[in-house]
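Give me the fold.
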Amino acid sequence: MRGIRKEFPGVVALDAVDFALLAGEVHVLLGENGAGKSTLMKILSGAYRKDAGELIVDGAPASIASPRDAQMLGIATIYQELSLVPQLTVAENILLGHEPSRAGWIDRRRLRDEAKRSLEDAGVDVDPDARVDRLGIAEQQMVEVAKALFRRARIIVMDEPTSALTVREIDRLFVVIRRLTAAGVAVVYISHRMRELTEIGDRVTVLRDGRHVGTFQLSDVSTSDLVRLMANRDVRDHFPRRRRAGGDELLRLDRVSGASGVDDVSLVVRRGEIIGLAGLMGAGRTELARIIVGADAPSSGRVLVGGRQLPPCSPRRAIREGIGFLPEDRKRHGLVMTLTVCENIGLPNLARWSRAGVVSRRAERAEADRWVGELRIKTPTTSERVVRLSGGTQQKVVLARALAAEAKVFVMDEPTRGVDVGAKVEIYELMNRLTDSGAAILMISSELPEVLGMSDRIYVMRRGRIEAEFDAQTAPEERVLHAALGLAS
């Protein structure tokens, strides 16, 4: 890719960007949210058309005007926001557009067999007949990998492929990637998990503000070098937690159980605290969060906010009592993707801004403008649809909505998933500002360094129960991990 330029209304997303990919390599693409990584890859995949520049494949100029053109050239993309059809089965998704037929009818047996073979190649144990919308995010991610393998791609773009995977699933994915590159397949790997890069990557290209900063051998640069190149500044402290003694109790769970596997959970979150909720995928953390915010009903136990018990299964009451929720899957559960930034921020507050049932758009825009400025949300205007924003920017819109609703207890499920190093620090500083102002945060995270670095206290969940509680300042990482695994420390 040479001299690639792409403009959107009011924004130059890419400015004369060069990117070269070699057969058999894993090429890491780094940059803060909004740096242009996803836009560059969407041009390669045919989802966007470039405004200037040229694409060269096998030494010859190539035209990629649609996703079909990219597929014909052997280019497959696994997006950060998954592109599966939820209502179809796993097998139907893997072979979508390539369904085998017999006498004009889809050959279901062959479709299932070929999908199963691709799943086995990816090392995934998923029922080919299962509907995709009934799978977890990790399983859906691996279905995307199997889909790319089925199409025998020569170039595979992986945008945050491990953001929802367990350590074991990441290891399995890396085995698949190494098998692919050994066969000459080139992989573009976009990730903000810096620890992974040297393990799986060969070269790295850094983008900043839509421009190419440089391309390096990963063995020749340090993590601090890469952070400095991405952000044009030193990010010395990745976890800038300003710890303070907790105040009065804001959230209490009293022996909460649920049909979702949550079992007899009790915990306390106090004013000014960040409480980390650690555990392996499937430990019950997200299920517990859904009970707290009223999305699911507990089978027993109580959820109390400020000493008042919340009625079961009432998100409206939870919002009214001051609970703000940042869900793990912002696309499905956190945002209305077809609405604007302004409309998404305003959703919980329409009654406040209404008179005789008519919403004051002026009040709604003023509130949205306030939070876009305070959170430094990268959007041309508050009238921009959130579907056009980067993942990290979308996460800030979810946070802005909770702040506009005057939340005092924030339940944050993977708050920095898919967010770059520089933007993570911004989110951590926002969390500090929230607790400095008297709010409390229950933070669910799969990244143990993040839990240790940003929490005051840590609860570890395993199989739906609280396995252990630690002081984050003194807890060794090994003890927390042992508790999550159910091993004796």
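The chain is about 35% helix and 25% strand.
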